Amino acid sequence: MYVYNENDQKIIEERVAQFRGQTDRYLAGQLAEDEFLPLRLQNGLYIQRLAPMLRIAVPYGLLNSKQFRKLAHIARTYDKGYCHITTRQNIQFNWPQLEEVPDILSELAEVQMHSVQTSGNCIRNTTSDQFAGIARDELEDPRPWCEIIRQWSTFHPEFAFLPRKFKIAVCGTEGDRAAIQVHDIGLQLVKNDAGEVGFKVLVGGGLGRTPVIGSVIREFLPKEDLLTYLDAILRVYNRHGNRSNKYKARIKILVRAWTPEVFAEEVESEWEYIKDSPAKLTDQEIERVKGFFTAPDYQSIDDSAVEAELEALSENNIAFGKWLQRNITPHRVPGYAAVTLSLKPTGVAPGDITDDQLEAVADLSDQYSFGEIRATHNQNLVLADVKKSDLFELWKKAKAGGFATPNIGTLTDMICCPGGDFCSLANAKSIPVAEALQRKFDDMDYVYDLGDLSLNISGCMNACGHHHVGNIGVLGVDKKGEEFYQVQLGGSSDTDASLGNVLGPSFGREDMPTVIEKILNIYIENRSGDELFIDTYRRIGLTPFKESVYAKDH
Amino acid sequence: MPKIIKGNQIVDDSWIIIEKDFDGELPMGKLLLPLQYWLENRENLQLMCTGLWIDSDEEVEAIGFEANLFPLIAVNFPAFADGRGFSTARLLKERYGFTGQVRAIGNVIQDQLFYLKRCGFDSFDLKEGTNLEDAVASLSDFSVTYQTSVDQPEPLFRRS
Ligand code: HEM
Ligand code: SF4
Question: What are residue B137's DSSP bridge partners?
């Protein structure tokens, strides 16, 4: 993982000092509320319903055990003993005191962390695939590129006051695990006919009020040109994006208004001017950053022997077998596996983790996975480099820690935003819906039988819970001051991304479990063989679901 | 006389901003003319002691290489969150080789000065009531930067 040098460290420390000064000026009444607002936002500080909310950047989701222990300390000292993993691989604290935020940032700086540009109308944290570097289907590790983008975007002087927030995601695989199609810029590492690796560039994807799948504006961008091309896109957007209506200010609206073709032409002509400027990447820099993402010290292991052992263990222990089935991802190195620790046990807000759990995970990572931990955009954690021979032991410990729920990728592995319990923009609560559904569908065999299925919940149309790209999406709506929930079906953020379609009129909260059950029943009745929910939906369409859910009871 | 920040100094300033809807006879003195006014009246104007100001929604391409006719070009920020002026200044400096003074006017706040300086601004007419000493200090909020910029064309990776 990337390690700060003196320069990186200095920049972060100077930021802490700068923010301390701004906070002091604000508290002393020398900085107006509306002037402090964008400054605190650019440091991840929202003022929410109950307290400020501090969002901490986790560049492309990668953390080490030392950072985890620091987060545990912060949760314990400055918050109520827990934090929250977000759908953009970041970490949020829900209860910090404004006065203490500079101290929190200064503690974070000690472990090379910060909250720079985690909100506000600027370039946000770059996200990636949680299995980067270990995935079997990977063309090239996307993380060095994310780091290069992180440095380029950190305090970029020209793009700190964009029309709206700006999110970039990078993936290194054909199959998209980083949701690049619903980002302002999506970058996919690809190979051209000459065998060179570069980027396919997508722009204008996004969720929120106007969900859009991004458009490809360049099939192949040579690697060295990455930053100048990003500069060109951002400059076109900075100059021409809508600034009068914040609901029309995202780049997706500009791309749609101009058409992707015209937008691409504008970018290309801007790029002509700057492509050979000093901003062009050097091989040396690319190699320097890549040097931080080399393979850890893997042992050579006889994979078939450990596989046989695992099989024997899971025959004697069904719970372990299920966990292997759902929470383990194949690794490109024989004898190793990636383990997903579930932060979705029933009764806990999806993505929440306590101080003790943070420490427990830090210990597990030190013991079993080279001290590294990854946050996923599904709000779980990954230990990416576990020896298969350690899996049984790890499972027992994870179970004791409360994060071995064997539900990854299933119905109960829901994505859920903080909603009305915390968020002042909410139309409705979302956490209680997630909990009611988890309680309703607590029969694991039933859930396994449903197979891969994503259920995403947002408390309002800002779509922090990615409801548009859930196979089943739930959206909180407000009807005359009462909380209701709209259901959408057919969304997906995989390679063949699609946006969900609205089922029909919305439901009260107490009806939600039954509504979802009816939907699942239609799927079960109609699926052929192992067909996944999304495929059945695509084959049979919305109507059968609609008929069942809205059928009049006789 | 009004004070502005120029370079790292607080200095007196006598430039007069001419409003967009100005009509009639121009006053005497060092004038900052609205871009559109200049485009429409350039034939009749005598350029001595004249500068230009560009609004956030105006395109710097309209003057392009003619920028160097002026000793000073100001870029207006109608609201501090309107970041178009950052691009305007970079284009003036980097694309059109403008060598004169670039001034930020309008609702610029202290905490933007560091970014503004990097984009090529070298004088700052801050809104009334700003503590200019503090503002000057903000010009050096950071001592290291990653990207290319007007004041440091080589990105960090080419320097270290
Ligand atoms: C509680 C405080 C929060 C507030 C006030 C908030 C506010 C917003 C708003 C206003 C948007 C829409 C922006 C737009 O479309 O231009 C948005 C989008 C988003 N939020 Fe949040 N959010 C909060 C928490 C979260 C959390 C906890 C997560 C992760 C679980 C999250 C993830 C996202 C994501 C992924 C989007 C992007 C949707 C897109 O692509 O446009 N947010 N948020
Ligand atoms: S989706 Fe709405 S309710 Fe949920 S966190 Fe985002 S803004 Fe708040």
Answer: none
